[in-house]
UniProtKB/TrEMBL annotation:
Coiled coil feature spans: none
Keywords, in A-Z order: ATP-binding, Glycerol metabolism, Kinase, Nucleotide-binding, Transferase
Family: Belongs to the FGGY kinase family.
Listed name of the protein: glycerol kinase
Source organism, top-level taxon: Eukaryota
Domain (Carbohydrate kinase FGGY N-terminal): residue spans on this chain: 10-263
Enzyme class: transferase
SUPFAM superfamilies given in the database record: Actin-like ATPase domain
EC annotation from Swiss-Prot or TrEMBL: 2.7.1.30
Pathway stated in the Swiss-Prot or TrEMBL entry: Polyol metabolism; glycerol degradation via glycerol kinase pathway; sn-glycerol 3-phosphate from glycerol: step 1/1
MF annotations from Gene Ontology: ATP binding; glycerol kinase activity
Cellular component terms (Gene Ontology): mitochondrion
Segments forming domain Carbohydrate kinase FGGY C-terminal: 273-463
């Protein structure tokens, strides 16, 4: 057995609906894993919470479960050289620094309770200049608005703040803190891909920006913010305090979308990935300097692997992607499950003139049209279910093209290839349609656990399992499929122009 075949890296994937632990070999194959769903708490419309203790216990259960399965295969736990963390971004946890006890449920990234507060902030002098400093516009999405809501509305949080005991963190920080043993060891850190989602970090320096924090009227002497450290580091993240991997070092940390970009090996400028889940998240590597968008995209840190290995990304998201397929299953009863979508769409040759703008809750990047609603155009007596199925899958592909066009305009770089993952990429028809509409290759890896792989890469790079990005060239290459464009550019442009016309016509439906 070579040294390589005895070396493994673990990845904690703490997502919105479940936690997982995966153990990868040096080829990027999953050799063991364990997954656990946890409770979603919706106290009011628009509110979404998680129990912070359950986030941690679900992770430790997954570690123990995966290590057990790993050892059943004849491996031993000390072959796991390091652990990486990837996590749901923006979700906010507050706790008392003296006790290590959470003061409120975690407020999840999707939560919109801070809407009124954000409206007020937008009126404050200087609000339009924030994006230039931190990459994000004001909205309910970044962690800062969740923290401000907690400070205004929860007495325990306000009291801890007044006493100078309030600790604030995103899920990466909370997990690292707890997995290291909590307040006894006080490992209190965050990586730049997570910290860049708070609006407190300066996108250029990757340090907290005092002017931003002052603008939000937060007193730095009263709230503890985690130290921002590189995404890949041998010491900063400490080690697991107990459980099956007690003593194993945590050496990597990346927010979920950044981790997917790393897992797709999007290390160089001009590479992009799209994760086709319930919604879509596109990240486009723009290189070692941030690009502030003038086309409705977010600017974020892609990853920080130390000197010379720090990259920025432009980010765009689509609100409705896989959920439009579920809409055909659950609401219209067109098909019995999502995997049948392609078969239904293939019962017809094309969309038959139908365009479906799936703006169920308005349109996100790059359009940002709040008052658009789902609209189906071009229906005639000829229209079949298959045409609507095609128009549904095309809606996600058109929006992806719109975002990629904006990314190219903002960055001045041409996209060379799109790497894909997420549930919807299982459909060959969707991926072929995507390639046709963007006119470049779409690359779908064989192993689709790219988010967890990204966390494993961050940890493995620090641990010396891989030393340089080039060492990863053979990782996760088996079983990949490349979809090449099959229609001329003029045809793709014509179809896209029709989509854009439909987008304009879907405006203003909701008052
Ligand atoms: P999330 O992580 O957001 O829960 P997933 O990456 O698991 O999402 O993807 C789930 C979504 O993908 C669902 O909305 C589902 O409708 C869609 N999906 C899964 N398989 C297919 C398929 N074969 N064709 C089209 N859509 C699919």
């Amino acid at each position: 057995m070579s040294a390589n075949s005895t070396t493994f890296v673990g990845a904690i994937d703490q997502g919105t609906t479940s936690s997982r632990f995966l153990i990868f070999n040096v080829s990027g194959e999953v050799v063991a894993s364990h997954q656990l769903e946890f409770k979603q708490i919706y106290p009011q419309p628009g509110w979404h919470e998680h129990d912070p203790e359950e986030l941690v216990s679900s992770v430790t259960t997954c570690i123990d479960g995966a290590v057990k399965a790993f050892e059943t295969q004849g491996h031993s736990r000390d072959q796991i050289k390091a652990v990486g963390i990837t996590n749901q971004r923006e979700t906010t946890v507050v706790w008392d620094k003296t006790t290590g006890k959470a003061l409120y449920n975690a407020i999840v990234w999707t939560d919109t309770r801070a809407q009124e507060l954000v409206r007020r902030l937008k009126h404050r002098l200087g609000s339009s200049e924030l994006t230039q400093r931190c990459g994000l516009p004001l909205s309910t999405y970044p962690s800062c608005s969740k923290l401000l809501w907690l400070l205004e509305n929860v007495k325990e949080v306000k009291d801890a703040y007044e006493k100078g005991n309030l600790a604030f963190g995103t899920v990466d920080t909370w997990l690292t803190y707890k997995l290291n043993g909590g307040c006894a060891n006080d490992v209190f850190v965050s990586d730049p891909s997570n910290a860049s989602r708070t609006m407190f970090m300066n996108i250029e320096t990757l340090n907290y920006d005092e002017e931003l924090i002052d603008w939000f009227r937060i007193d730095r002497s009263k709230v503890h913010l985690p130290k921002i450290v590189p995404s890949s580091d041998t010491e900063a993240y400490g080690s697991l305090h107990d459980g099956a991997l007690k003593g194993t070092k945590i050496m990597g940390c990346l927010g979920d979308q950044s981790a997917a970009l790393v897992g797709q090996k999007g290390f160089t400028p001009g590479l992009a990935k799209n994760t086709y889940g319930t919604g879509c998240f596109l990240l486009y590597n723009v290189g070692p300097k941030p690009v502030i968008s003038s086309h409705g995209l977010l600017s974020t840190v892609a990853f920080d692997f130390g000197e010379g290995k720090r990259m920025y990304a432009l980010e765009g998201s689509i609100a409705v992607a896989g959920s439009s397929v579920k809409f055909l299953v659950d609401n219209l009863g067109f098909i019995e499950n999502s995997s049948k979508l392609s078969a239904l769409a293939e019962t017809v040759e094309d969309n038959g003139g139908v365009t479906f703008v799936t703006a169920f809750s308005g349109l996100f990047a790059p359009y940002w049209i709040d008052d658009a609603r789902g609209t189906i155009f071009g229906v005639t007596a000829y229209t079949q279910k298959g045409h609507i199925a095609r128009a549904t899958l095309e809606a996600t592909c058109f929006q992806t093209r719109a975002i990629l066009d904006s990314m190219e305009k903002d960055s001045g770089q041409k996209l060379t290839e799109l790497a894909v993952d997420g549930g919807m990429c299982n459909s060959d028809l969707i991926m072929q349609t995507q390639s046709d509409l963007i006119g470049i290759n779409v690359n779908r890896p064989g192993m689709r656990e790219t988010t967890a792989l990204g966390a494993a890469i961050a940890a493995g790079m620090a641990a010396g399992v891989w030393e340089k990005f080039e060492d990863l060239k053979d990782v996760n290459v088996d079983g990949s499929t490349v979809f090449k464009p099959k229609i001329p550019k003029s045809k793709a442009d014509e179809r896209f122009a029709r989509w854009e016309k439909a987008v304009q016509m879907s405006k203003g439906w909701a008052n």
